Amino acid sequence: MRGIELRLAGVLTALVITLSSAADPAAADTSPNGADQQARSVQEPSFASLDRNGDHQISRTEAGFNRHLGEDFAYIDTDGDGYISPAEYAARTRS
C-alpha cells in the first residue's frame, strides 16, 4: 500500500507544479479593454492566411472561413467593392 501512496503523492506533486507554472497572475490583464485586446490578438489570423487564392484581397467566400470576419464583412469592406483589401483589414485589426 505504501508504494501506491508514494506514486499518488508524486503524481499530485507533478500536477500542482504544472498547474502553478501555467498560471502567471502577473501576466494577466484583468481590465475589460485588455481582455478584448488579448483575445483579439489571439484570434486574428494574418491577411495572407485568409486570402486563400492569393489575389491580395479577401472575398466574401474567403471571409466565410472565419466566423468573425464573415459576420463583419460589410462593415470592414468600407469601399463596398465586395472585397476586403489589406488596408481595410489592417484598419479593422487596429481598432
Features:
2 strands; mainly alpha; Recoverin, domain 1; 95 residues
* Helix/strand/pairing category: mainly alpha
CATH architecture annotation of the domain at 45-95: Orthogonal Bundle
Give the helix tally.
7
Order of helices and strands: HHHEHHHEH
Termini gap: 61 Å
Question: What strand line-up does the widest sheet have?
Answer: 1-2
CATH topology of the domain at 45-95, by name, is Recoverin, domain 1
Oligomer: single chain
- The radius of gyration computed from the alpha-carbon positions, rounded to a whole number of angstroms, is 22 Å
CATH class of the domain at 45-95: Mainly Alpha
Helix-residue proportion? 55-70%
Q: Any idea what the CATH superfamily of the domain at 45-95 is called?
A: EF-hand
Uncertain stretches of 5 or more adjacent residues:
24-31
**Silhouette:** rod-shaped
Task: Provide structural commentary.
- It contains 7 helices and 2 strands, in the order αααβαααβα.
- It is mainly alpha-helical and 95 residues long.
- It has a domain at 45-95: Recoverin, domain 1.
- It has a two-stranded antiparallel sheet.
- The protein is rod-shaped and about 75 Å long.
- The protein starts with a helix and ends with a helix.
- The relative contact order is 0.09.
- Mean pLDDT is 77; it is low at 24-31.
Provide a quick synopsis of the model.
This protein has 95 residues and is mainly alpha-helical. Helices cover 62% and strands 4% of the residues.
